[in-house]
Amino acid sequence: MPSLVFTMTIMSMTAFTESFLLTPKPTTRVTDNVRAFHHHGRCISSSPCSASPKDDIEQEGQRRRRQAGQRSTRDYKTEGGALFPDSPTSNTRIWSSSSLQGSSTDTSETTRALVGDDAAYFSLSDQKLQEWIYFTIATGSVLAFVAWFWFLPFGLHGGDAFLQLIQTNMIGSTDPATTSFAMLCIFAVAHSGLAGLRTYAEPVVGPRAWRVLFALVSLPLALSCISYFVNHAHEGVQLWQLVDPAGDPSVATAWHAALWMVNFISFLFLYPSSFNLLEIAAIQTPQLHLWETGIIRITRHPQAVGQLLWCLAHTAWLGTSTAVATSSVLIAHHVFATYHGDRRLAYRHGADFDYIKSKTSIFPFQAIWEGRQELPVDYWKEFVRGPYLVVVAGTIGAYLAHPYMQAGAALLHW
Predict the structure, then answer these.
(1) Is the dihedral of CA 255, 259, 261, 264 positive or negative?
(2) What sign results for the dihedral spanned by CA atoms 138, 141, 143, 149?
(3) I want to staple 306 with a disulfide (CB 3.0 to 4.6 A). Which of 266, 285, 344, 359 is the partner?
(4) Which residues pair with residue 113 across a beta bridge?
(5) SS3 231
(6) What integer pLDDT is reported at residue 113 of this predicted model?
(7) How far apart are the C-alpha atoms of 295 and 320, rounded to whole Å?
(8) CB–CB of 96/107 below 8 Å?
């Protein structure tokens, strides 16, 4: 469950805050058609649509360049084929097609601004020590508060009350599969419900205050779901057994390696906002980002794809009713999130989201094979970045730490 284990673990390390990915970086997509298109029977260009598709394409390209505040190339300095504003505080960054094609073509005719944000971009020079000090203090404070309020024996036992409420008042059973199902349903309603209210609440209380409230509700519920699942994943009805304990050990090893790889890949599908630690912790002002590059080129909803892969791998290996119940809610929640996320992005970003939606897909690689998304020749560079190195190390570390996770969850006596 990447969304719970990784994203909520990050929120557990944070809970108050804007990110090292916030500043959009240039994309290598330049020569791809900056096209106007008709969405649901209407042209999304801000200028009147012409009868000619070619004119529509040009109009949309001009509109987006104006919207992004694109300036003449005389105002930029060339750096490794990319054009960067001289001012380090500028949020507009553009990319020249000459860097992609290796040509000496006049960049003033081929440069365009990025419509969305550049996923997983990180620059060490952009970081401020003071912000990371605040991040550390906020992280420790929130973790301490949540532990005292929810988990610790000398605390308020909020977690115990939550579990008792579910098993005694809601489902009338201590069956682990039913309990896990109910816990995750409550988490899903709270998590997506608060996300849906964000548009209306932030103008009233501010984005930072709303992020804190969101975290203080979602974090204890998520950690409860994780802890309970770790304790009871092997319990319930054994519906199947992928590997015969008395069989050939090499078969078990092969299955384990294959499913481990599926699980590892699932974490590469984390939604790019998961990397924005300073935003998640509200040290910087939280943003509802419109991502355009990286994993978004493959699928517009990477978190849902990653969650599906994680659930399939873990459920296939465990084969218990608890695993099936847990995965069913997680998958259903993320299927709903594909609609819910698109709806919120459309409301916040309007025609820019329509444009990116036209170039992306929910199903992985669909937009690519349909010709709506053209990968840059150096697409792999969008993954060779600091946040993904952390993800790789964290995923391997989490696997090696499984025994300690189980020991820690067992201390709750749930």
Answers:
(1) negative
(2) negative
(3) 266
(4) 94
(5) helix
(6) 66
(7) 32
(8) yes
| Cβ burial 369-379 (10 Å sphere, 16+ → b, else e) | eeeebeebeee
Which of 114, 112, 110 has its CA nearest to residue 23?
A: 114
How is residue 300 written in tokens? Answer: 């517009």
- Cα first-last separation, the chain: 20
The 10s digit of each residue's pLDDT in 364-390 is: 999 999 999 999 999 999 999 999 999
Which residue type occupies 84? F
Q: Are 227 and 163 in contact (CB under 8 A)?
A: no
Provide the pLDDT for residue 106.
40
Separation between Cα atoms, residue 270 and residue 292, nearest integer Å:
14
The token pair at 269 is: 């599908």
pLDDT of the residue at 80: 33
pTM: 0.74
Cα(25)–Cα(326) distance, integer angstroms: 38
DSSP state of 293: S
Start-end of H helices in 206-320: 207-232, 249-267, 277-280, 302-318
Low-confidence ranges of the chain (pLDDT < 50): 2-58, 60-62, 64-112
